[in-house]
Write a structure and sequence with these properties.
CATH topology of one domain: Alpha-Beta Plaits
Distance between the termini: 26 Å
Largest sheet: 4 strands, antiparallel
CATH class of one domain: Alpha Beta
CATH architecture of one domain: 2-Layer Sandwich
């Protein structure tokens, strides 16, 4: 078995990517209310600050800032994934099972990147908010409803028309 090493430092900000096992599914946006509830419950039990998020049909990206005395983001993600899965089952959504047990809704692992500085944070905020445009779900960042983009516009971080498909600044390759 491969041992994955994660950079776990208390009080730090991290960029995350989580995906569904079936990358053609739309479960995350179809049940966005249940995903939001799972995140809120996990956050109430083990606090963190949600700096930014975008939820697409089959994957999500977000930035969390952890408390100064806590570095355990894996436990938080286990709670979010399990909570969302459990809520889907409660409303009668059938989920495939893995041969070795458990449900095959989420990809087993997730990607995390500890943000190094303000420039790194800015690049990842751009990546998150441009992602729906990149994947063809919206013509501009402001058009995607499952994103923290409007909150960042209200805070003055972005102009309302930032992130047009034809002229968004920045490098939007996979992080």
């Amino acid at each position: 078995m491969v041992l994955y090493r994660r950079s776990r430092l208390a009080g730090q900000s991290y960029f995350f990517t989580l995906g569904l096992q079936d990358r053609s599914a739309s479960t995350l946006t179809d049940h966005i209310d249940l995903l939001g509830l799972a995140i809120r419950v996990a956050k109430a039990r083990r606090p963190f600050v949600m700096t930014a998020i975008v939820v697409l049909p089959d994957h999500l990206h977000c930035i969390w800032k952890l408390p100064d005395d806590d570095s355990d983001f894996p436990a938080r993600w286990r709670a979010v994934k399990a909570g969302f899965t459990h809520r889907l089952l409660q409303i009668g959504i059938g989920l495939p099972k893995r041969a070795e047990g458990g449900y095959a809704l989420w990809q087993r692992r997730f990607w995390e990147h500890r943000l190094r500085d303000e420039d790194d944070l800015a690049r990842h905020l751009d990546y998150i908010h441009f992602n729906p445009v990149k994947h063809g779900w919206a013509t501009r960042a402001a058009d995607w409803p499952h994103s923290s983009f409007q909150r960042h516009v209200a805070m003055g971080f972005y102009e309302p028309d930032w992130g047009l498909a034809i002229d968004a600044p920045g490098d939007f390759g996979e992080a």
